[in-house]
Amino acid sequence: MLRARNATVSNHRATSTSASFGVPELRKNKDHGPTVSKTRIATVRNDCAIMKAFPTLVLLVVVCCSLLPENAHATVVESCGDTRALVPIEENVIEISNCEKGPCKLKRRTAVSINQKFTPSEDVKSLNTAVFAKIVGLPLPFIGVDGTSACQHLYAEDGETQVGCPLKAGVPVVYKRSFDVLEIYPKIPSMTIHWELQTKSGRAITCFEVPAKIV
Question: Quick one: which of 157, 160, 146, 163 has its CA closest to 197?
C-alpha cells in the first residue's frame, strides 16, 4: 500500500516536472514560431508586390524616355546678331559633335561634324556656305568650307536621303557637314564661329554662332 502510494506520488511528481519543463518549450515555439512565419509571409508578399510593380516601372521609364524632346542633345547656339535669317534661330535644331554647350573644343587633327535641321518658309533655289571664326573682332574664313555650295550637303528629314537644291517651302531638310581642324591651326583660347547658309545674292536663310576654342 505504501509502495503504491509512493509510486503514485512519484508518478505525479514526474508528470508535474515534465509538465513544468514542457510548458516553456511550448511557449517558446508558440511565441517564436508564428513570428517567423509572419516575417516570411510579409517578405513573400513584398516580393510579390515588387514583381507586380516591375512591369509598371519599366513602362514608366519607357514613357518618360519617349517624352524627351527630340533636340535633347542639341547644341546650344546663339543668333547672329544683326544678321536676320529667313529661318529664326529657335526654329533650328543644331548638333555639333562633342559639344552640347559652348565653348566647343575643336581639337586639332580631328574632324568636326554639324547637323542642322530647319524648315524654310519659302522656296530657295540654291544655298552657299559662309563660315568664319571671329577672333578679336576679325573674321577669319574656314578654308575649304567658306564660300562652298551647301546643296550637296542637304538631306531629307530622315538624314539619309540626299535632296539637294532647290528647297521647298514648308519641307524640313537636314544640312550635314564636317570639316577638319588642321594641325597647322594655332591654339586659340577664345573665338566665335559664325555659320551661315545664304543664297547667291547673300541673303541669309539660316545663321547661328557658337563660342569655341582650338586645342
Answer: 146
